[in-house]
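If you are new to this repository, start here. Below is one unmodified record pulled from the training split, so you can see the exact layout before writing a loader.
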Amino acid sequence: MWLNVGQVNQHHVLISSRTDRVAIFICIDGKMVPQIYPVEALTAWLNEQAAVTAA
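And here is the target side for that same chain:
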């Protein structure tokens, strides 16, 4: 997790090896609870950007 990105409070970036979701754990009443969220498909966009940069 990258916290306070660009020195902006509460602006965090999560990195996941999964292409379709990211998971975090939060603590509720002393218990660790997993939270799983869908993510935007950025792989194709990132590959396109890399190709433009390399050209």
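Two things worth knowing about this chain: The chain has one domain: 5-54. The chain has a mean pLDDT of 82.
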